[in-house]
Amino acid sequence: MEETRTIDFFDRTFHLSENNTNIKQECLAGLTTFVSMAYILFVNPSVLGVAGMDKGAVFTATALSAIIGCFLMGILANYPIAIAPGLGDNAFFTYSVVLAMGIPWQKAMAGVFVASVLFTILSFLKVREIVINAIPKDLKYAMAAGIGIFISFVGLQGGGIIVSSKSSLVELGSLTVPTTWITIFGIFLIAILMVKKVPGAIFIGLVATTLLGLLTGLVKMPDHLISMAPSLEPTFGVGIKFLPTMTDPKMWAVVLIFLLVAFFDTAGTLVGLAQEAGLMKDNKMPRIGRALMADSLSMLGGAVMGTTPTSAYVESSAGIAVGGKTGLTAIVTGTLFILSMAFSPLLEVVTTQVTAAALIVVGVLMVSALKDIEWDKFEIALPSFLVAIGIPLTYNISYGIAFGFLTYPILMVAAGRRKEVNVVMWSMFFVFIALLYILNVLPK
After folding, report:
1. Which pairs with CB-CB distance under 8 Å and at least 24 residues apart come from 183-188?
2. Cys-Cys crosslink for 55: which of 45, 236, 260, 391, Cβ 3.0 to 4.6 Å?
3. Cβ-based neighbours of 207, under 8 Å, separated by 6 or more
4. Which sequence ranges are marked TM in the entry (predicted)?
5. Distance between CA 214 and CA 158 in Å, rounded?
């Protein structure tokens, strides 16, 4: 009887039956998403540590901001999308703002806090929602595909299958590297399981790949299993304490960049994931206002605790591919981030070579959105193509989207379809010109 009440509660709260899913499927999806993005708990402290921040405090701030974001996304928006500090934002913070511009991390964190406050206000006023709903469907399909190619590229790099090259930018990695074969094993295993239509194929593949790494000694067992979460004291509230430094004009340029990059990174990712999950209705994402508010509040919380802006994670696509369709998936992911704070040493066994296979396979699923683009109309084909190819080649979701937004209005006018270009798209045309100017003119 108690079990029935529990099932009914989750069904009413997350509308499981309406979305043709169940508790088991959502839990599996949440677990898969967590395993795919758990690397951020170690990568974020490493990147921000270069800027001089305390790695232990950043680890805890990363986990807490992810917990806040995932729970808000699950409860407010009922979407299977996880939130955590974004990789692009932390790299910009460290290498462009702190190291290149010579701004101390404490002062830079004040800029992040101000950008977070503005971000939340824009979400509350539904400005972000209006912009996303105004994006043409073809460009949304291109975003989904571009993100798919991007995460596959990340997976190929993480697995060592693709490496950098001085002569041709990238080239095939060495197949004599043992850890590369962990990724190759994972790709084939997941692919075979998916062809066989085995439920949870991606998660099963991740577990099996991890076990292979442990058995062969290519993945090391952690020295201990349990560790208390490090203190937040070194970073907590630093951004607020350094608000008086915002009198520096250079800091407002930094705020603008954080604001614009975070705005379109999250927007592009949300649309791409919703497209893949089949959640779009009439070219609009239902409850997108709530989803954006969840993202904004988690970004604000992260800025207070001491980490760079949060973002919707493309790795959520792994959970969506497993069958995640509601906010319960995000809740499960957030719960696992809570547990990860106590059992953080165990996360070391999930290496980039392990998660790489899942990212590559999921990328294949997302690229299928290309089939819905009107390729026979060049005024639509070129902007869509530039978005899809621009995201992975620039290694930046915002840049890829910018290519499409800058060419779409011009080509639509040339094709005699000026009336189909709405005010928002023209506004974004000029916003992206400003963004590209700022990013390429400010000191590197």
Report:
1. 183/155, 183/158, 183/159, 183/209, 183/353, 183/354, 183/356, 183/357, 183/360, 184/159, 185/209, 185/212, 185/357, 186/159, 186/353, 186/354, 186/356, 186/357, 186/358, 187/357, 187/360, 187/361
2. 45
3. none
4. 28-51, 63-88, 108-127, 139-163, 175-194, 201-219, 251-273, 326-347, 354-373, 385-411, 423-442
5. 18
Question: Which three-class secondary structure state does DSSP give residue 246?
Answer: helix
Rounded (5°) CA angle 283-391-123: 50
Q: Which H/E stretch holds residue 84?
A: strand 83-85
In this structure, what are the phi and psi dihedrals at residue 171, rounded to the nearest 5 degrees?
-155, 170
Classify residue 273 as exposed, middle or buried by CB count within 10 Å of its CB (0-12, 13-18, 19+).
Answer: buried
Q: What is the helix (H) or strand (E) element at residue 75, kind and residue range? A: none
For tokens 């979305």, the residue is 19
The amino acid present at 329, given as its one-letter code, is T
Q: Which H helix or E strand runs over 61?
A: helix 55-72
Q: Strand pairing partners for 281?
A: 284
Q: What is the pLDDT along the chain (444 residues), one digit of tens a residue?
A: 566 766 778 888 898 988 889 999 999 999 999 988 888 888 888 889 989 999 889 999 999 999 999 999 999 999 999 999 987 678 778 877 888 778 899 999 999 999 999 988 988 888 877 777 788 889 888 988 888 898 888 889 889 999 988 888 899 999 999 999 999 999 999 999 989 988 778 888 888 998 999 999 888 887 777 888 889 999 999 999 999 988 877 788 778 777 766 776 677 778 778 877 777 777 677 888 888 889 899 999 999 999 999 988 878 988 998 889 999 999 999 999 999 998 777 667 777 788 888 888 888 888 888 998 999 999 999 999 999 999 888 877 778 888 999 999 999 999 999 999 999 899 889 888 877 776 666 544
**Beta strand segments in 241-325, E:** 310-312
Q: How does DSSP classify residue 77?
A: I
Q: Name the strand (E) or helix (H) holding 85.
A: strand 83-85
Residue among 74, 440, 30, 119 nearest 300 (CA): 119
Residue 163 belongs to what H/E stretch? strand 162-165
